[in-house]
Amino acid sequence: MLGPTSLDVPRGVAYVRVQTAAEMLQAALSAFQTADAAICAAAVADYTPAAPADHKLKKANERLDCVELVETVDILAELSRQKGERCVIGFAAETDNVVEYAQRKLARKVVMPLSLTMSRAPIRALEPTLTRLDCEHNGTQELPVLTKPQLADTILDLLHNL
Questions:
Q1: Among the listed residues 105, 110, 149, 107, the one whose alpha carbon sits nearest the alpha carbon of residue 126
Q2: Distance between terminal CA atoms of the chain?
Q3: pLDDT in tens, 14-69
Q4: Torsion angle of the four alpha carbons 98, 131, 157, 105, in this order, in degrees rounded to the nearest 10
Q5: CA distances (Å), origin 31, targets 9, 35, 148
Q6: 3-state secondary structure of 135
Q7: DSSP-assigned beta bridge partners for residue 40
Q8: d(Cα 84, Cα 24) in Å, to the nearest integer?
Q9: Model's pTM, two decimal places?
Q10: What gap in Å lies between CA 63 and CA 90, rounded to an integer?
Q11: Among 129, 132, 78, 139, CA closest to 103
C-alpha cells in the first residue's frame, strides 16, 4: 500500500495507491488474504477527522473552533487478529523507554505464535537503531545499529527461517 507521496516506487514492486487510512486498511486486508506474512512499517494515523470536509475550509467563510477526531482502525492489530499461522511484523518507533514500550505494543497488538516487534530511536534518525527483536520461536535478540538495507535483510532472513 502506498499513500500520497512524491517518491518513486522501486521497479518490480507491486503496490496499491491509497488516499486515506480507511483505504489502506481495506487494501491491507485484501492483500493479506493471499500473503504469507505482513510487514507493517508505520502507523498511518492514530486519529482521523470525524467529519472530513469535502472542500478547502476558508477562514473568511467558515469558522473552525475545533476538529473532532476518532481513533483510526489499527492496521497492524487487525492483521494480527486475522493472521492464523502467518507472521506479522510491526515496528515501535519510540524516543524513550524503547524496549518497555515495544514489549507493551507486542502484547497489545500482535498475537503469537509467529510475531516480532522491533523498536528504534530516535524517531528522526536516518538509520534505525534496532534495540530489540522479539519472536516467540527465536526468543529475544539484541541487534547492533543497522543500515536500512541491513535491517531489511535481517527481517527477510527471519521470515525465511520461520
A1: 149
A2: 24
A3: 889 998 889 999 999 999 999 998 888 777 888 999 988 888 888 888 888 888 99
A4: -10
A5: 18, 7, 24
A6: strand
A7: 90
A8: 21
A9: 0.75
A10: 40
A11: 132
